[in-house]
Amino acid sequence: xxxxxxxFVYGTLMDPRVFFRVVQGNSDPPEVIRNLYTFTPAxxxxxxxxxxxxxxxxxxxxxxxxxxxxxxxxxxxxANIDKLDSFEGDEYERRTVKVKLLEQVGxxxxxxxxxxxxxxxxxxxxxxxxxxxxERGEWDFEHFRRERLRYWAREEFxxxxxxxxxx
Length: 167
Known about the structure:
alpha+beta; Hypothetical upf0131 protein ytfp; six-stranded antiparallel β-sheet; 6 helices; about 45% strand; globular
């Protein structure tokens, strides 16, 4: 059964394989499980996504005038949120934020210029609480997908191993 909770994810969890490994324990669950969730591009204003020093994953911190693109996820249960809390660990604080859904207008292009802000939604997200451990550079999701995702999405590879490998 689908849950009523929502989240805004902006890092490794934007990849469905990582997301499903965390919340379902399987990077490729059956379609009936996948269909319990919806994934919509969204933007969070007033924050910036940075690389966490010596890690594959990012952290967001409040930063006026900046914004973070990510994914608004619906269908989460309390058990899913518990798993996300555990995955994010003590480096992050779960906070409720307001995001704007991104809607496609016209033809899609490589830069996402055809996306415009739409409806505002409330969601939980994870804010990095150790700003001295971040690098002042934007974390690159595409670089993560090309270079590091294989470590995070393999069924036989644990998240603890992925974190150890990243460090």
